[in-house]
Design brief:
Length: 308
Amino acid sequence: MNILLTGSSGFTGGRLVRQLIIDGHRVWGLDCEPPLAWMQNLEGYHHSMVDLGNIVQLRQALSQLPPITMGIHTAAKQPLHPTMELSGFIADNVLGTANLLTVAKEKQILRWVVLSSFSVYGPPQQSHPITEEHPTLPDNAYGLSKLHAEGLCHFCARHEGFHVCVLRCKSIFGVGQNLPGFVQYLVQTLECNEDVRLFNRGKLKHDPVYVDDVVTAVRLAMNHTGDSPWAVFNIGGGAPVSSLELAETIKSKLGSSGQFVLSDHGKPPLAYDAVMDLGKAKSILGYAPRSLSACLDDMLKPKRSSRP
């Protein structure tokens, strides 16, 4: 297939480029950043530096493409800092998605897999685990922008002839991670043998998902054909653990001497358990994430091999 991929130079997007080429597809990547070094001269891959917020630039880039079978939308402004200004997230994640869908309709690129986020749910309003039917009441600007981007996709699926499969991912981690996250924090701190501060006495539940499992979920969603032109799936690691359990596992794998400092305080913006129900993705898509231990082994392998 000919595939259009946004965010192709990103953490997840880069992994998708590699796997889609292996699968025999041809990929046209859109990103506001240059291609990663290994992508240059990669057979079957074509890169365009495009700001999705600039619809003129986007139209120009897509006008040069051959017929595209499917689009995969991973590009998004990420919550890199505790302070999240609403206007920036709306401009990048909402307006950028609106422009993409507008030009995609003009080019008749109507089949899409879209990466979204657990953040659209906000604090749990019902018992765990959270299903796709859980109320969407985000409590930060990033989650709000992702929810509105989903809304645009849903509108296009209902009224514009699109077929959209949304994957709500939770805490993606892995080798080469360039975004902040709890797993990354634990690894960076414990490999320096420094102490780790765990809020809520380390009892908060986490369900991080390995980047390779997200890539697998996207590939499964590409083949999803249902009666409805709109589908939403939770994508997590499938093995919820407490902060303390996760920290102890990483400490053991690294052989770290770092200690844990258990705090009674919560830490905004996430001071509640974050566990999603993956039953729908497992039964309909055939999604089967690898064990957390195996994923951590993959992530930590380069760090172990570099030690004297």
